[in-house]
Amino acid sequence: MSTSTPTAAFAAARADAERRERRLRMRRRLPLLPGLVFLIVVTQIPFVVTIFISFMKWNLMKPKDVRFGTLKNYTTVLADPRMRAAILNTVVMVVGSVGIALIIGTGLALLLNRKFPGRGIVRTLLITPFLIMPVAASLMWRHLIYNPVYGLLNGTLNAIGKLFGLTAPQPEWVSSAPMVAVIIALVWTWTPFMMLITLAGLQSQTLDIVEAAKVDGAGTFQTFRYITLPHLRRYLELAIVLGIIYLLNTYDQVFTITAGGPGTATTNLPYEIYLTAFRKYDYGEAAAAGVLVVILSTIVATFGLRLLTSLADTTQPAKTKKEGKK
Amino acid sequence: MSATTADKAIRTTRRAARRHRGEGGPLGVVAWLAALVFITPIAWMILTGFHHEVDAATNPPSLFAQLTLENYQRVIKSNILPYLLNSLMAAGFSTILVIVLALPMAYATAVKPIANPRGLLQWVLSTKFLPLIAALVPVYITFKQLGLLDNIFALVIFYTGLNLPIAVWMCHSFLSDIPADIMAAAEVDGASLFTILRSIVLPISLPGIAATSLICFIFAWNEFLFALNLTATKASTAPIFLVGFITSEGLFMAQLSAAAIIVSLPVVIAGWVAQDKLVQGLSLGAVK
Amino acid sequence: MKRIIPVTALALAAAVALSACSGANTNTPSTGTTATSTSSGAAAGTEINVLMVGNPQMNDLTTLTEANFTAKTGIKVNYTVLPENELRDKVAQDVATQAGQYDVATIGAYEASVWTANDWLTDLQPYATKDTTFDVGDILPAMSGILSKDGDMYAIPFYGESAFTMYRKDLFDQWGITMPTNPTWQQIADIAAQIKTKDSTITPICLRGLPGWGENMAVLGSMISAFGGGFFTSDYKPLLTSDGTKAAVQFYVDLVTKYGEAGASQSGFTECLNTFSQGKAAMWFDATSAATTLESSNSTVAGKVGYADAPKDKLRSGWVWAWAWAVPKTTKHMDAAWQFVSWASSKEYEQLALDKVGRVPDGKRASTFDLPKYKTATAAYSDIMLAAIEASDPNNCQAQASPGPGCQYLGIPEFADLGAKIGQEMSAAITGQETADQACEKSQALAQAVASAQ
Fold first, then answer.
1. Residue A284: which domain range?
2. Rg of chain C's alpha carbons, rounded to an integer?
3. Is C212–A170 a contact, with Cβ atoms under 8 angstroms apart?
4. What's the whole-model pTM score?
5. Sign of CA dihedral A3, A8, A9, A13
6. What interface predicted TM-score (ipTM) does this complex get?
């Protein structure tokens, strides 16, 4: 039959197939449309407006002197040593919090993956910090826990001291170790999140392999190192990426616990931008700082994207096969 | 004779298995200690809420000071309901909208994938790299021009944009769990798209949808900065209500603690109830 | 398709931004000229939005409004309560972008001077003068002084304060120490040293150290004026490394590190209030509004506190502050707004609050200090408080003329940012991260940046 088919008909059939293919592709794209349009409108419009404002001289306190067309915002921001301090603080804050939360979270997940009396209660208690409103949690840390005069930390030290008839030291937690204070509050909130992701990873691990390793005489550590950890890798990477995304925007804790101080010790990028927009009332400069941060995080994200790529890869085994066929 | 040996063998393996999973022991104690460390600040906050203002900030802490319901009562009486309703609406509607938008998107990346789902997923997540705070002024101005300031739907739209990327990833992960052969079989049987969605996709993805909803709801309920800036008197949400208890003149610790507990409670309870779903759902894209 | 979206977005965004910028540029003609139509009843049935800080006096107001204001005038009042910082941000944003979400807002004295200069607020003087029951002549000159431009009040004080020295009279008697009626800062330091030898468990003096222009900088700013320093000369020459300023900063840092409270760099007004009202500090220099809490029934030091004037050096440490009602020009309910403001700041309301809650928004009217019930309740401090308010002239607080009004702050737009940053440096100095001189040098550089932008 194929031998008797004229070239024209063959071409028509091919065109038909192509059309069908295209229609299929269109149909596959269709469900994307509403969400995609929404996301572009909601995330890209503010960004474009930000770029626009970044070229404006616009200080709220000088309403008579507003105009478009200046590069001064960028030169000011780039020359500002506070900005460089803020970048460094952001890196320390994010890396510190994500790292510690991930280690503690993984440890807790490993514990929760074992059976022990009251495991359900322990898990319930452990996830609670993640559910508490961050503003509430920050206020709690600042006033109820860290406060050097009447916070729980120094209060407990004092009570223990009194028990032994000693004068307990009363350190000024927030001012002597501001970054640590913020990181502890962040770790407290985000450890449960890390724990949940790792726990999901552990529970998806098939026990047979672990059992087999046991039978082969592997120790607990070896089993963890060579079997559990490789299995967890993707989950840990995911936890890191999400942690970075959310912690880059840390604002509530800094604003409430340290107000960026002392000095600029804990002023991170979001807080610095906030100060520029709402204390200096300089919308133009704040926008320029925002644009620079986007550029910076895009550069960082390009490295991060490799991580993302590996994540997306692992989610698409079927897909890669299909592409392979093509 | 051989049967008993087999029996014994099975029993030992079972015991080994049990030992491997651990039964109490020192590690259970460690877990309990960790849980206590994590919960202590919250417990202290709850207790402080039951103290009188003068006992709330003492050193050493007044653990056994006289208890009172005064603070919790005052918080509940001080017109809290509109704020909670606003939060419920902002978080609730945005969560529904997120799911409605995210599910089809994830369907197009996971179930009947488009040409380059990976690139799309990356782009979607990359929108989360924008520093939110830099968008505050532009978002405010945009909503002002649209006449949407102090309107709960401004928050609904904003929170939807905020949570959509993460929701797409979560939905993508559980939708790719659906075995391709079942789908193919259903198609061969001539099942309509609706039938496939209803009888195959939905049942499998329900726990995932629940987890995604919960995560989005938590983030929306707890958001403070934009709620503060985009609302005024009518659409203010629970976190705004909370900070109203801070005063620069006078003592406020006990009241604030009571208010903090009350506004956190809805999400805490939801999280507790759905924690199993949360574990399943948070495996996100990592789950093949 | 993909290309079109960003372009449309760009156009839309540009349009939005442009209209925003023109919005910020537009100065709608003053509505103050319509001051003639203040007949009550005209505003009945309207709703006004009021933004307030959550101070106790404001909370009292919310509980009294419905039965005593709405019932009479038919005007419904929607309150939003926010902490100081958030409130400033919101009002600034709301007014600057002409969003007009609020009809009335409580603002501090600082905002009154800065925002009036920007022409954001309604001139309330015509309303106040016309309204005979309001009795504008009764407002204390220091209060109208900080809230006025060219003799017109742009905000009506709700309550006002100055600062004074609070000390534990009972302990001073026990130790045989006397507090002079008009102490010098050196005497305060000497007394602090003496207290330290008498009782090592008590904090000799509590002073704010928490960074913030309205926190540590208020106390330090007042000290800087006293020591003959300042922030700027009237032609914007920075004064942060001048002898007076350096002396004040050194004195403050020494006093706080030697005799101050634990955790000074994290202690603001609230922390000192807690410390002092629990009997853990012997002296405290701060706002007069603290006295209400100190003398209240649940304070452990009620009746034990002595009050003296603000300490002095070359000059007296002046301090004037008010929480005041401002009506943004963007309001659409001017008459209702004035009815509310004039009621909340009236003599009638003071009497009502005194009878119903026992706490008065005081310090703004001379007549308040003659109310018999008020006099007995505040016998311990009200005379000294009134004297302190009258002794502080916000337009003449520094040794040399400065570019804006203010005693413990400087009423120029840049001060909120500058003061916050200097506050952080000073806070770093009391934790020992840098010396007082280094903090001054860094602050000078910050101030120089502001000066060169002028």
1. 71-325
2. 23
3. no
4. 0.80
5. positive
6. 0.84
Residue B147 with chain C: CB contacts under 8 Å: none
CATH number at residue B145: 1.10.3720.10
Continuous H helices in chain B: 2-21, 25-49, 53-56, 70-77, 81-106, 117-126, 136-145, 152-175, 180-188, 193-196, 202-222, 225-230, 238-243, 253-273, 275-281
Q: What is the pLDDT of residues C404-417, one digit of tens each?
A: 888 999 988 889 88
pLDDT at A322: 36
**Domain shared by B99 and B205, yes or no:** yes
d(CA A262, CA B251): 24
Among B242-246, C234-238, C311-315, where is mean pLDDT lowest?
A: B242-246
Mean of pLDDT over chain C: 86
Residue type for position A232: L
End-to-end CA distance of chain B: 46
Chain C residues within 8 A of B54 when measuring between CB atoms: 277-278, 298-300
Q: Which own/partner pairs from C380-386 qualify as long-range (CB within 8 Å, at least 24 positions apart)?
A: C380/C291, C380/C295, C380/C303, C380/C305, C380/C307, C381/C164, C381/C288, C381/C291, C381/C295, C381/C305, C381/C307, C384/C164, C384/C307, C384/C308, C384/C309, C385/C161, C385/C162, C385/C164, C385/C288, C385/C291, C385/C307
Q: Model confidence over B192-225: pLDDT tens digits?
A: 777 877 787 788 788 888 888 999 999 999 999 8
- CATH code of A274's domain: 1.10.3720.10
Pairwise CB contact (< 8 Å): B20 & A308: no
- B95 alpha carbon, distance to own chain's centre: 10
Can you tell me the distance from the alpha carbon of C83 to that of C102, in angstroms, rounded to the nearest whole number?
A: 16
Instruction: Using the predicted structure, report yes or no on whether residue C10 has a pLDDT greater than 50.
Output: no
Number of structural domains found in chain B: 2
HEC string of chain C equals CCCHHHHHHHHHHHHHHHHHHHHHHCCCCCHHHHCCCCCCCCCCCCEEEEEEECCHHHHHHHHHHHHHHHHHHCCEEEEEEECHHHHHHHHHHHHHCCCCCCCEEEEEHHHHHHHHHCCCECCCHHHHHHCHHHCHHHECHHHHHHCEECCEECEEEEEEECEEEEEEHHHHHHHCCCCCCCCEHHHHHHHHHHHHHHCCCCEEEECCCCCCCCCHHHHHHHHHHHCCCCCECCCCCECCCCHHHHHHHHHHHHHHHHHCCCCHHHCCHHHHHHHHHCCCEEEEEEECCHHHHHCCCCCCCCCCEEEECCCECCCECCCCEEEEEECECCCCCHHHHHHHHHHHCCHHHHHHHHHHCCCCCCCCECHHHHCHHHHHHCCCCHHHHHHHHHHCCCCCCCCCCCCCCCCCCCCCCCHHHHHHHHHHHHHHHHCCCCCHHHHHHHHHHHHHHHHHCC
Mean pLDDT, residues C8-15: 42
Q: Report CB contact under 8 Å: B145, C274.
A: no
Read off the pLDDT band of A314 (50, 70, 90).
low
Contact B54 C86 (CB under 8 A): no
Q: With the C-alpha atoms ordered C260, C263, C265, C271, is the resulting torsion angle positive or negative?
A: negative
Q: Which region among A202-216, A312-326, C105-119, C144-158 has the lowest average model confidence (pLDDT)?
A: A312-326
Q: How far C336 CA sits from the closest chain A CA (Å)? A: 28
Minimal Cα–Cα distance from C108 to chain B, Å?
A: 12
> What are the tokens at C96?
């600057």
Which residue type occupies C454?
Q
Q: Which residues of A touch B120 (CB under 8 A)?
A: 32
* Domain boundary assignment for chain C: 38-161+321-377, 163-320+394-452
Q: Which CATH superfamily is domain C163-320+394-452 in?
A: Periplasmic binding protein-like II (3.40.190.10)
pLDDT over 70 (residue C24): no
